[in-house]
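User: I'm curious whether this sequence folds into something compact or stays loose and floppy. Could you predict its structure so I can see for myself?
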Amino acid sequence: MSRYAVFDIETTGFSPALNHRIVEVAVVLVDDDGNTLCEWDTLVNPKRDVSATEVHGLSASDLYSAPTFDQIAGELVSLFRGRILVAHNLRFDASFLAAEFARIGYAVGLDRSCGLCTMRLASHYLPSGPRALESCCSCIGYSCGPAHHALEDARAAARLLAHYIKQDDDFARTWSDEIAAASRIEWPSISPGTAKRVTRQSVAQSRQEHFLARLVSRTPRCDAGVEANEYLEVLDRVLLDRRISRHEADELVAVAEALGLSREEALLVHQSYLTALARLAVSDGIVTGDERADLLYVARLLGLNDGSVDQALEAAMSAQGDNVCAVGSFVLKRGDKVVFTGEAPGVSRGELECQAQALGLRVSNSVCRNTTLVVAADPDSLSGKARKARSLGVPIVDYQTYFRMIQCLR
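Assistant: Here's the prediction. I'll summarize afterward.
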């Protein structure tokens, strides 16, 4: 039977008091002898801007389809109940767990004394008494996996625990007070949820699949014109910033399915869209290198091969495809209402807002139906503003695209 639940978390920041949230959690169950029995991990949607991506390597795109904490709380309780919590820097990890449980209405007594901290125990079992997880593991000859990956760090802490157990003839008696305190934790009664776990591995695999692969395959109809135009309007909005975020890919799939478009029909629509872009490129009689590069980039985003660009240019120059709808119709104008979310690179929020107002834009802190544009540090932002924008069909672009748009307002 497993006695210990070794866990690790990754977060959006350093303090739950500042509304930072858990973005990944992993649990490794260990028996009395230090043997690993099973592992469990998942990414967690924090329902806010991710932040600290440079530390844990996770972006909003990675987390948007992950379960929220309330959806995994029951599973965590089942892993923790009846076991001794163990973590490297237990105070930090326990404080975030307590805050997450409190956020969904459960007061759980978690603090630095609610279990065993492999960082604190290092001074008893390791000669130099290091504190960092990697340094501690080096002392026992264990090579850690990638830093700040919850499962890898939980595995490393479990190895440390196993080493400590083997160094002590009666480990449980030595730390009986801490073990007793952990045994007194009153875990809430929460039924395990049905939300599917999302891991770093599953995210990496999903990135390799183009969103068109999710549509049914069927011979194109000859009467899909109206549906094609509706899909094109969404596609044009999505491609404002020349990228298709995970949220936007889901939206395109949902729209295509609602309109009854097959994979082959969507590809034909994509080719029509590329032809419409090619018309803009040839309108002055010259296709520049930058214009061709843009067409190639868009073609690849849309699941088309490079040859489709030549096909689009040929159709554009011969005035074929007169029924293709106009593209590039979105233009940011003076008086338009913009909302910012997340940090802009090298510009403070105050400077950003002053610049926008000087250009004649209206800046708002909330999103509503008359919002023209939301500008985000990450188009897959999980912030409340971004979620509201998606529900209303308001375009979301990154800051690089926004700065390019406002050049026309100067």
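Summary: The chain has three domains: 2-202, 209-317, 337-409. The beta strands are 2-11, 22-31, 36-43, 84-87, 115-117, 337-341, 362-364, 373-376, 396-398.
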